[in-house]
Design brief:
mainly alpha, about 10% strand, two-stranded antiparallel sheet, two-stranded parallel sheet
Length: about 260
């Protein structure tokens, strides 16, 4: 059966390893995220939550600092570019400035606070200029509210705070691209499997995809990792924490070391 797929990308601090989670089933993304957050230790900082603007992506009962995806906002304008070329080009060029700043931040290896300051200095002026321009156009009724352009502007302005979280909060991402890539891998896996016959089959597929994508995120070869787990089942069961993808190699070396007589 072709069930919906949710992808959750967990990016912690610089010292925390990335984790990629895949859920296939009848729950929507917000419900799946709520299950994950329910396992989170208490007392931790409120997590940043990047997603598109759909209400069902938000985890009920769990506080998050919402961020919305610039790529999704941009897509609304790209889809109508032939009808409104001037306005759409304005949005694309503005977002291009933001992504050029982001690329430079990554190239220089800036920490979250330094990155925030760089975006505030270089990205915020162009974003605010775009915002004021569209607010004025809507207020003066130079744009038909029910037109494609009106809908795109409305999406942008109504979500401005969450779309520009990267201008106010250290570490806030610009978009949801990493999760979109995870979903593409999962959808391809489902297609190659000729869909899932049962929920049990979907759950097994999710577990494998979760392991494989988490290994890739940590620059670990998935086949080598799963082979190591298969060869050390009792040790993995006894001490699972030391057999995670990001730290299994030292554990494996220790397990294979000859014991003193």
């Amino acid at each position: 059966c072709a069930l919906p797929i949710s992808g959750i990308v967990c990016e912690g601090t610089a010292l925390a390893p990335p984790i990629r989670l895949v859920f296939t089933g009848r729950r929507h993304a917000g419900e799946n995220l709520a299950r994950v957050l329910g396992e989170r230790e208490s007392g931790l900082e409120t997590p940043l939550h990047m997603c598109d603007g759909l209400d069902r992506n938000h985890p009920s009962g769990h506080a998050t600092e919402s961020c919305n995806c610039l790529v999704h906002a941009r897509r609304h304008f790209v889809e109508i570019r032939t009808s409104f070329p001037v306005e759409c080009r304005r949005v694309v060029e503005t977002f291009s400035v933001v992504y050029k700043v982001e690329a430079q931040c990554r190239k220089e290896g800036l920490d979250p606070v330094q990155r925030l300051q760089r975006h505030q200095a270089l990205s915020q002026p162009v974003m605010e200029s775009l915002r004021k321009e569209f607010q004025t156009a809507m207020a003066e009724k130079r744009v038909e509210p029910n037109s494609g352009l009106g809908d795109a502007i409305d999406y942008l302005l109504n979500r401005w705070e969450t779309l520009t979280r990267f201008l106010t909060t250290p570490g806030a991402p610009l978009d949801n691209n990493v999760t979109e890539r995870l979903l593409k891998s999962s959808i391809l896996h489902r297609k190659n499997s000729m869909h899932y016959r049962t929920q049990r089959g979907a759950d097994v597929g999710d577990r494998f995809m979760t392991v494989i994508e988490t290994c890739r995120a940590n620059q670990i070869t998935p086949f080598d990792y799963m082979l190591a787990l298969a060869r050390n089942p009792e040790a993995v069961k006894t001490d699972p924490e030391n057999w995670m993808p990001w730290n299994y190699k030292p554990t494996l070396i220790q397990a294979d070391a000859p014991r003193a007589p």
